[in-house]
Specification:
Number of helices: 4
Helix content: 25-40%
Strand order of the largest sheet: 1-3-2-4-5
Order of helices and strands: EHEHEHEEH
Number of strands: 5
Radius of gyration: 12 Å
Strand content: 25-35%
Length: 101
């Protein structure tokens, strides 16, 4: 299951994570974001070796600003606390798998 990342837990859960982390920046008002949610949940269930979570941009605007999120959904991949990949738009499970390689 995808975690909820917030300003309060982002450093601990994402930047200090030992495994790769896939972060979905989203909002409830976003149609493609709502379509991405079940795909993200299924991907998280199939890939326990990857930490998967979401950041609601409306509730955490400082994180959205910090990572220059201009469009949603935006997916970020972190490895060893560093941002290594960014992708914008709706992705299927195969696309998510490619992203986190």
């Amino acid at each position: 299951m995808a975690m909820e990342f917030t300003t309060g837990n982002f450093a601990q859960e994402v930047l200090a994570a030992k495994q790769p982390v896939l972060v979905d920046f989203w909002a409830t008002r976003c149609g493609p974001c709502r379509m991405q949610a079940p795909i993200l949940e299924a991907f998280a269930a199939e890939h326990p070796e990857i930490k998967v979570g979401k950041v609601n941009v409306d509730e955490n605007p400082d994180l959205a600003e910090k990572f220059s999120i201009m469009s949603i959904p935006t997916l970020l991949v972190f490895k060893d606390g560093k941002l290594v990949k960014t992708a914008v738009g709706l992705h299927d499970k195969g696309g998510l798998a490619e992203l986190v390689k």
